TrEMBL record:
Highest taxon listed in the record's lineage: Bacteria
Species classification: Bacteria, Pseudomonadati, Pseudomonadota, Gammaproteobacteria, Moraxellales
Organism name: Moraxella bovis
Keyword Zinc: no
Protein name: WG repeat-containing protein
Keyword field: Signal
Leader sequence segment: 1-19
A Pfam family it matches: WG_beta_rep
Record bears the keyword Signal: yes
Length: 335
C-alpha cells in the first residue's frame, strides 16, 4: 500500500509546488478584475497594460507602478503596445511610454505593424470595413469590406471581404493569396515564394501564392524556421503524431508519438529542431534563439534524417530529464 500512496503524493504535490513557484502579477493597488482593462508585453519588457480609476485611463506595469498618469478618456491593448484616447483623438504608446503614433486618429487603432502603419476598422450596418493609415495620419488603403490584421510588417491577413474571400495582401493592397477558405495561416513569408496553410471543407493544405498544393497530409503545420523546416501534426485514431517536413512538403523526420519531458511548457520558450550534419536534435530555446538548456532529451520523433526517398528509422538514445525521471519513478511504484 505504501508504494501507491507515495506515487499519489508525488503526482499531487509536484504540480502544486510548481504552481506555487510561479508568482502571478498582482498589479499593486489596481484590482485585476476591476481596474486592469487589458495587459500585454513586448520584447525585453515586463507585462504592462491599461488601467482605469474614476473613469480615467492610464498605463501601469504588473506591479501597479503607474507609467502614464490616469488622465486619458479610453484605452485598449494591442500586441506589445497600448492605445489611448484623449480629447477624442487616439494614439499609440510603446512599452517604454514613448508615443509612436501621435494622437491624431478619430477611431481606435485596431492593429499596428510595428513600424509605420496602423489598421483602423469601422463597423457599419452591412459589415466591418478596414483601412490602412500611415502613422502620420495619411491614408494608404481606403476602407474596404472585411477584417484586416497585420501578419507582419509587410503582409496583411484579410477575412470575409465583399466577395467572401480570405487570404493575404501586402500593405499596398496587392493580393498575394485569395480564395474561399475556411481559414488561412502564414507558414513562410519569403517574398515571392511564400507558403500558406489553408482549410477548405475540413481539408488542410500547404500551398504557395499560385495555389500549388505541396502537401495535404496533416492536420496542422507550424511556421517554417530559418532552416526551412516545419513541425507537422496529425491525429491518428485519437493519438497525436508529430513529424517534420521541408518547404516542398517532403517528410524529413517521420511521424511518431511525441512526448516532451514534464513541465516543458515554459512561457517565452519553445522547442525547436536543429540539424547538424545528418542528425537532428530538439532543444529548448528562448524567443531570441538562445539555447537555455542542453539537448539532454532529444525526443522520440528526432531521428536520423533520411536521404532522399528513404524513411528515417534510426532512434537516438534519449537521456531522461529530472522531471521525467521523477515521473518514471512515481509511475513505476504504481505498477
Amino acid at each position: 500500500m505504501k508504494k501507491p500512496l507515495i506515487a499519489l503524493f508525488a503526482m499531487l504535490t509536484l504540480p502544486q509546488a510548481w504552481a506555487l513557484s510561479m508568482k502571478p502579477a498582482d498589479w499593486g493597488d489596481f484590482r485585476y478584475d476591476e481596474n486592469v482593462v487589458c495587459s500585454t508585453s513586448a520584447e525585453n519588457s515586463d507585462i504592462f497594460g491599461v488601467v482605469k480609476k474614476h473613469g480615467k485611463y492610464g498605463m501601469a506595469d504588473s506591479t501597479g507602478k503607474v507609467l502614464l498618469p490616469l488622465e486619458y478618456d479610453d484605452g485598449a491593448c494591442l500586441t506589445g503596445h497600448i492605445t489611448l484616447s484623449k480629447q477624442g483623438k487616439w494614439g499609440l504608446v510603446d512599452a517604454h511610454q514613448r508615443v509612436i503614433v501621435p494622437f491624431i486618429f478619430d477611431r481606435q487603432p485596431w492593429d499596428f505593424n510595428g513600424v509605420d502603419k496602423v489598421i483602423i476598422i469601422d463597423e457599419r450596418d452591412d459589415g466591418i470595413y478596414s483601412a490602412v493609415y500611415g502613422v502620420g495620419g495619411g491614408i494608404i488603403l481606403d476602407y474596404q469590406r472585411g477584417e484586416w490584421d497585420f501578419e507582419n510588417d509587410v503582409l496583411i491577413r484579410f477575412e470575409d471581404d465583399e466577395n467572401g474571400q480570405s487570404g493575404f495582401m501586402d500593405t499596398q493592397g496587392n493580393i498575394i493569396l485569395a480564395g474561399r477558405y475556411d481559414w488561412v495561416k502564414l507558414l513562410d513569408d519569403k517574398a515571392g515564394d511564400e507558403r500558406f496553410l489553408v482549410g477548405v471543407n475540413s481539408q488542410v493544405m500547404m500551398i504557395d501564392r499560385h495555389k500549388k498544393v505541396f502537401t495535404q497530409d496533416y492536420d496542422d503545420m507550424e511556421p517554417f524556421d530559418e532552416q526551412g523546416i516545419s513541425r507537422v501534426h496529425l491525429d491518428v485514431n485519437g493519438k497525436s503524431k508529430i513529424g517534420f517536413v521541408d518547404r516542398s512538403g517532403i517528410l524529413i523526420v517521420k511521424l511518431s508519438s511525441h512526448r516532451y519531458p514534464m513541465w516543458n511548457d515554459v512561457y517565452g520558450h519553445e522547442w525547436q529542431l536543429r540539424i547538424d550534419g545528418k542528425q537532428c536534435t530538439l532543444f529548448l530555446q528562448d524567443l531570441a534563439g538562445q539555447v537555455v538548456s542542453s539537448p539532454e532529451f532529444p525526443d522520440e520523433s528526432c531521428r536520423l534524417l533520411a536521404t532522399p526517398n528513404q524513411t528515417p528509422n534510426q532512434e537516438p538514445t534519449a537521456k531522461r530529464g529530472l522531471w521525467d525521471r521523477i515521473w518514471a519513478w512515481a509511475t513505476g511504484l504504481i505498477r
